[in-house]
Specification:
By secondary structure, this protein is of the alpha/beta class. The protein folds into 2 domains: 17-119 and 303-323, Rossmann fold (3-Layer(aba) Sandwich), CATH 3.40.50.2000; 122-301, Rossmann fold (3-Layer(aba) Sandwich). It is 42% helix and 14% strand. The protein has helices at residues 17-30, 45-58, 79-87, 98-107, 131-138, 157-170, 185-194, 210-219, 235-241, 254-257, 272-284, 288-298, 304-316, and strands spanning 34-39, 62-67, 92-95, 113-115, 144-148, 174-178, 201-204, 222-225, 246-249, 264-267, 322-323. The strands form 2 sheets. Strands 7-6-5-8-9-10 form a 6-stranded parallel sheet, sandwiched between helices. A 5-stranded parallel sheet has the order 1-2-3-4-11, with helices on both faces. β8 (222-225), α9 and β9 form a beta-alpha-beta unit.
Length: 325
């Protein structure tokens, strides 16, 4: 059964303008004090500009944008214009990193912002299994590391592949690359062959539905986010929710979420040797149990209750520049 949030009503369809009108009508009819809109890509420009314009013009509700990205990671020439057009309708903004706070100020100098961590995805717990069962279902033997999410150039998977021969010299481990390729699938396959990694890398090239996410995380000892650019990632909060240690790069909010040496390791972006060294260290020093305990303690600050509290503080009191601690 698909994982669903209790009470969530699925009304909006990005390619059906009738549903945009229905969302506005619901706002008008129910007269909320606040409308919260997620933003991360200019693909949503027309629908969210339309809804936000109607809400601002014909209701008294304030609008809070939760900006997972202010501007797309790999943005086109009009992306900043699209972001400015939509976000100019907002009364307050949540951002997940200092970098995105600066980007927002460049677009909207007077924007009221709150620096708030991306909350964890607790509902994925419902799809978790024991390591033994998950590996049995996937046909895996032994330890594994996981890259999860869309495969795009800024994600740095190429550097992770380069790191794998170094890792395998010290530790037998399977790399799971799980997510849909946007492009470059053949180039990755060629690199895997050239590096002799056919037996050490498992590629699952498809969109993973919610109900299958827990399977791959359950099978892994460690999640690796080798991003070379970007502002943040929801993947890291799936890992926190499922209590999986992370090796990540020092970019955007990743460097603010991972406690280096406590819940995972941080390395510089684009450094395959450092990636390999961090993964090897994790296994050689047997850090998994220690890091899992630390994640259980640290993840409380990423709770949805914390986000609700910040929403109340920032939008009801009219405060700006509140930082989540």
């Amino acid at each position: 059964m698909p994982l669903r949030e209790d009470g969530a009503q699925h009304i909006l369809d990005s390619i059906n303008p009738i549903t945009w009108w229905e969302v506005y009508r619901r706002v008008k009819r129910e007269a909320p004090d606040l409308v919260i809109i997620p933003w991360w890509t200019s693909f949503w420009t027309i629908q969210f500009w339309t809804i936000a314009t109607l809400v601002k013009r014909f209701s008294s509700a304030k609008i809070l944008f939760i900006c997972h990205n202010v501007v797309d990671h790999e943005h086109h020439v009009f992306a900043k214009r699209c972001a400015r057009a939509v976000l100019s309708k907002g009364d307050h903004f949540f951002v997940h990193s200092e970098n995105d706070a600066r980007r927002l100020k460049q677009l909207l100098p007077t924007a009221e912002t709150t620096h708030a961590f991306h909350p964890i995805y607790d509902f994925f717990k419902n799809g978790t299994l024991s390591k033994t069962e998950a590996r049995s279902r996937l046909g895996l033997e032994g330890d594994s590391i996981l890259f999860f999410g869309f495969i795009r150039p800024y994600k740095g998977v190429d550097h992770l592949l380069t790191a794998m021969p170094l890792i395998l010299k010290q530790k037998r481990v399977t790399l799971l690359i799980v997510g849909e390729f946007w492009d470059g699938r053949e180039a990755f396959a060629k690199k895997i062959r050239n590096l002799g990694l056919e037996d050490a890398v498992r590629v699952v090239d498809k969109y993973i539905p919610n109900e299958e996410v827990g399977l791959y995380f359950s099978a892994a000892n460690l999640v690796v986010l080798p991003y070379v650019s970007g502002t943040g990632s929801g993947v890291i909060q799936i890992a926190n929710a499922l209590e999986k240690p992370v090796v990540a790069t020092r970019i955007g909010s990743l460097a603010e979420v991972v406690e280096d040496g406590k819940t995972g390791y941080l390395v510089n972006p684009g450094d395959s040797k450092a990636l390999a060294a961090a993964v090897i260290r994790f296994f050689e020093e047997e850090k998994e149990a220690e890091f899992v305990q630390n994640i259980r303690r640290a993840k409380r600050k990423f709770s949805w209750e914390q986000i609700v509290s910040l929403i109340e503080q920032s939008t009801m009191n009219g405060n700006s520049h509140i930082r989540q601690e």
